[in-house]
């Protein structure tokens, strides 16, 4: 296959060329640079495929790192040059059109995997060399006299030609022999090195068991030991090594010498530290990231008795607007400035600031008295955000909402603490933002329950957990049942029966209200048909009308009219048997586009009722332009009628509304009727129908049919 000019294959080969030029000078190989480039090309292809794979596989990176060792790229600088080349050019030449942020993250993970694979392969090779050297040393020291010359020759060849540092000392620690690799590692002459004693090479970072193992070896109690050890060079720099020390015995088996094998891991250690930093710090702001923060939080929560923690969870108010209006580059500069200000707020011992992602930051304080300190920390953060931030010549005002969690260590997990802080932060944001709130266990429990209900809603409809109860609508003139309002309920597996106030707002927020509302409408209309069939179609009883609530989200759904028409046609119910209830607040300031579906339904014969009338502060003159035929008077106007005498002001208000409604040819339904006195007063005022506990509580459909039959038969 011939690649297109500057196609993927060309870009891959260009990357391999750059890689070979960077690494070839520090590679021990007899190949030419062109031949070496051909060796690197399949490795470059593996890196390219791993970068763009659907599922990331770190094994590919480790395999490429190991392959470098097989290609004799064993010098630490070879790995350093390789990682620099991969970091700078892999995404550029092999990333394609993928998400750049994701590709950069994958590239960093590939570098980490390559480093791990390189280290493991080099260690295995080193151990193999060590075994060969140890075997040669044992043979050189333990063979019979007639084979001594040949054995020593073999040992000398391995000793001088090894890529790792080798030194031999007596049991008192006096250095007897060293090879060239060891001299280069220390940057010192052989004479200066042989003047040192092994016991002088202590370092503050020595593992606790280092010198215990050494003493056991020279006493003959162990044959060898292996550990990571640091040494000071003459210029004061630190040499990190993988150190293996073996005991050499004489022909009688008595300890005679000690043999040290050193692999220089300084460059690899620095690379690992760099990769560790990149893995635990945010690339944009330089702050610790979510991973680092969780490590610190887990450590703080695991502190001993008497220790406490305080956490501030910050989310910027209105940051999305800045991103949408000024662009993500401006948003990034804003986040960098915010990070700098937050960093200046947490400088005391035990305090840190991290970026969790997006515009979310956390500040942590630890110690015995965090109750007071965390409040001060939150105050410093709020003050730090007061001054405007200049971005592209614009002065941007930044505000934030903070959720605070404080408490003793050892009682909660990091995930629980962060969840509580997140919930509390959103409570501060819901209260208007630019403030901080303290965590509250009861508020957390309500939020967690609300979240659980939200996530369970979609499957609840599929599992048939919803059901409908019906509350009768009674004609005040003759007391007959004219219809019923459909009220949906949720039979939750854990929480039992939930009323609509517990889940309808959640359904609105998630958009599930549309399929749920369609289901309620269809079930209710089918129930109206069943009532009619049970009545035997008797005109004396008349059709029972069904009232169904519409949410604001349903009003704006384009399928409202067609769904209603389809349901009426499938069930064979006339449109005048259906009444759709819309809250007054949903129609305040409604334009013609919003009212158009309601007008179409009204023209078909469907009644439209204005629910909760009197609570929306609407202009009464707007009633003339709304396609409604019924006003449902809110229960707040009739509560005073439960007492005697009733509030005369409420009576005049109700009389005025009834008079106005009738002058506009609107019927009036009253909610919340609980006593006979209320019912009688409302009848005398001219109200048409009523509903409430005085007549019946919401219940199963058969109860309403029984009430209707009683009214019909007298």
Please give a structural write-up.
The chain has 714 residues and is of the alpha/beta class. The protein is built from 25 helices and 21 strands. The chain has an 8-stranded mixed barrel with strand order 13-14-16-17-18-19-20-21, surrounded by 4 helices. Strands 2-1-5-4-3 form a 5-stranded antiparallel sheet, with helices on both faces. Strand 13 (466-475) and strand 14 (481-492) form a beta hairpin. The longest helix has 43 residues, at 100-142. The protein is elongated, with a radius of gyration of 40 Å. Residues 1-5, 143-148 and 538-542 have low confidence and may be disordered.
Itemize the secondary structure elements and their pairings:
Layout (H helix, E strand, L loop, with lengths): L7 H16 L9 H20 L5 H13 L5 H19 L5 H43 L5 H14 L3 E6 L4 E4 L1 H7 L3 H5 L15 H9 L5 E9 L5 E12 L5 E10 L1 H15 L9 H12 L6 E10 L1 H8 L1 H18 L5 E7 L2 E8 L2 H15 L4 E3 L2 E3 L2 E10 L5 H17 L4 E4 L2 H22 L3 E10 L5 E12 L3 E3 L1 H11 L2 H22 L10 E6 L1 H4 L4 H12 L6 E6 H4 L4 H13 L2 E7 L16 E4 L14 H16 L3 E4 L5 H10 L3 E2 L10 H13 L1
Parallel strand pairs: 11-12, 14-16, 16-17, 17-18, 18-19, 19-20, 20-21
Antiparallel strand pairs: 1-2, 1-5, 3-4, 4-5, 6-8, 6-11, 7-8, 9-10, 13-14, 13-21, 14-15
């Amino acid at each position: 296959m011939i690649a297109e000019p500057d196609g993927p294959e060309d870009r891959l080969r260009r990357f391999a060329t750059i890689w070979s030029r960077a690494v070839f000078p520090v590679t021990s190989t007899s190949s030419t640079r062109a031949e070496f480039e051909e060796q690197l090309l399949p490795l470059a292809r593996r890196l390219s495929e791993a970068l763009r794979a659907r599922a990331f596989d770190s094994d590919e990176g480790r395999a490429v790192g190991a392959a470098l060792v097989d290609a004799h790229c064993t010098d630490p600088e070879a790995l350093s040059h390789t990682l620099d080349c991969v970091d700078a050019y892999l995404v550029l030449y092999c990333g394609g059109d993928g998400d750049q942020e994701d590709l950069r993250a994958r590239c960093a993970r590939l570098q980490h995997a390559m480093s791990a694979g390189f280290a493991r392969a080099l260690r295995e090779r080193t151990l193999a060399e060590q075994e060969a050297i140890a075997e040669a040393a044992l043979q050189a020291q333990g063979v019979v006299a007639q084979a001594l010359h040949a054995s020593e020759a073999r040992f000398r060849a391995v000793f001088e030609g090894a890529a790792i540092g080798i030194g031999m000392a007596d049991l008192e620690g006096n250095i007897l022999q060293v090879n060239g690799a060891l001299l280069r590692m220390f940057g010192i002459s052989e004479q200066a090195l042989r003047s040192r004693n092994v016991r002088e090479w202590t370092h503050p970072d020595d593992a606790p068991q280092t010198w215990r193992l050494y003493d056991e070896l020279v006493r003959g109690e162990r044959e060898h030991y292996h550990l990571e050890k640091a040494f000071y060079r003459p210029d004061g720099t630190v040499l990190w090594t993988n150190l293996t020390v073996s005991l050499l015995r004489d022909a009688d088996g008595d300890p005679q010498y000690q043999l040290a094998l050193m692999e220089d891991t300084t460059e690899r250690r620095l690379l690992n530290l760099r990769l560790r930093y990149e893995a635990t710090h945010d690339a944009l702001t330089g702050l610790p990231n979510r991973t680092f923060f969780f490590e610190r939080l887990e450590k703080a929560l695991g502190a001993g008795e008497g220790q406490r923690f305080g956490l501030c969870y910050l989310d910027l108010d209105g940051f999305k607007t800045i991103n949408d209006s000024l662009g993500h580059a401006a948003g990034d500069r804003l986040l960098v400035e915010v990070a700098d200000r937050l960093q200046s707020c947490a400088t005391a011992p035990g305090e840190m600031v991290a970026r969790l992602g997006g515009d979310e930051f956390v500040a942590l304080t630890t110690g015995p008295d965090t109750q007071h300190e965390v409040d001060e920390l939150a105050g410093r953060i709020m003050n730090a955000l007061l001054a405007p931030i200049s971005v592209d010549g614009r002065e941007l005002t930044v505000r934030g909402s903070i959720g605070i969690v404080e408490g003793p260590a050892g009682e909660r997990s990091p995930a629980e603490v962060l969840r509580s802080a997140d919930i509390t932060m959103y409570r501060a944001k819901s209260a208007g933002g630019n403030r901080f709130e303290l965590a509250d266990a009861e508020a957390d429990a309500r939020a967690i329950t609300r979240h659980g209900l939200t996530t369970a809603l979609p499957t609840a409809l599929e599992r048939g957990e919803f059901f409908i109860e019906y509350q009768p609508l009674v004609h005040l003139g003759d007391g007959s049942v004219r219809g019923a309002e459909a009220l949906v309920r949720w039979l939750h597996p854990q929480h039992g029966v939930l009323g609509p106030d517990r889940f309808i707002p959640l359904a609105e927020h998630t958009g599930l209200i549309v399929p749920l509302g369609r289901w309620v409408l269809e079930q209710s209309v089918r129930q109206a048909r069943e009532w009619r069939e049970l009545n035997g179609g008797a005109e004396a009883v008349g059709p029972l009308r069904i009232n169904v609530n519409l949410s604001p989200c349903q009003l704006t759904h384009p399928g409202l009219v067609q769904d209603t028409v389809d349901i009426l046609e499938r069930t064979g119910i006339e449109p005048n048997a259906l009444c759709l209830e819309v809250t007054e607040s949903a129609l305040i300031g409604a334009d013609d586009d919003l009212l158009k579906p309601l007008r179409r339904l009204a023209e078909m014969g469907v009644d439209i009722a204005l629910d909760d009338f009197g609570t929306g502060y609407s202009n009464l003159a707007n009633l003339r332009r709304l396609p409604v035929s019924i006003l449902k008077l809110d229960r707040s106007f009739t509560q005073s009628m439960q007492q005697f005498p009733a509030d005369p002001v409420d009576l005049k208000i109700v009389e005025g509304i009834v008079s106005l409604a009738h002058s506009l040819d609107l019927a009036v339904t009253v909610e919340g009727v609980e006593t006979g006195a209320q019912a009688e007063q409302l009848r005398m005022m001219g109200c048409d129908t009523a509903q409430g506990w005085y007549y019946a509580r919401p219940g199963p459909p058969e109860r309403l049919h029984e009430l209707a039959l009683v009214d019909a038969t007298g």
